[in-house]
Amino acid sequence: MDGKLLKKLYDTYHKELYLYIYSLCRNREITEDLVQETFLKAILSLPQSHTNMRAWLYMVARNLYLNFVKKEKPKVDIDKLRETPSQEPPPIEHIIANERRRLCFEALQSLRGSKKEVLILQYFGGLSQKEIAAVLHLTPENVRVLSFRGKKELKKYLEVHGYDI
């Protein structure tokens, strides 16, 4: 892969891939490792003629995360690796700048499974339903339904937490 193309991919997608992986595991060290490994895979195997590099990067990042969980789950409970709040704001605080996005991010963390992933890819990744379907190996109709149900749960979460919708 061309170095200029890789730098452009990194500059363009690093923050959103970081946010995506962080939202799955909520651990800075693991997130940094998986994001770097995603770009390493891009150096080694992404064909320059690939038509949707963004979706491919998300798919690689997701697969690396799932492989990590599968490999590490018997050794350590992934929930115990999640960070506890500290005095120093984590890097994610710099990515999620305004309060609405922060509240949306917290609400997204309350979701489970595919609904969470679909909405993260849709809102923070900016992927289309067709791209999300390719990344998650679902049909576009499944993505549409998961998105609808996830939004419904988000609305309920926000209402319960005093956010006027």
Structure report:
- The protein has 165 residues and is an all-alpha fold.
- It folds into two domains: 1-94, Rna Polymerase Sigma Factor, Chain: A; 96-165, Winged helix-like DNA-binding domain superfamily/Winged helix DNA-binding domain (Arc Repressor Mutant, subunit A).
- The longest helix is centred in the N-terminal third of the chain and has 23 residues, at 3-25.
- The radius of gyration is 16 Å and the shape is globular.
- The protein contains nine helices and no strands.
- The model has no long low-confidence stretch (mean pLDDT 81).
- The termini are far apart.
- The relative contact order is 0.12.
- Helix 1 (3-25) runs antiparallel to helix 2 (28-45) and helix 8 (129-136) packs across helix 9.
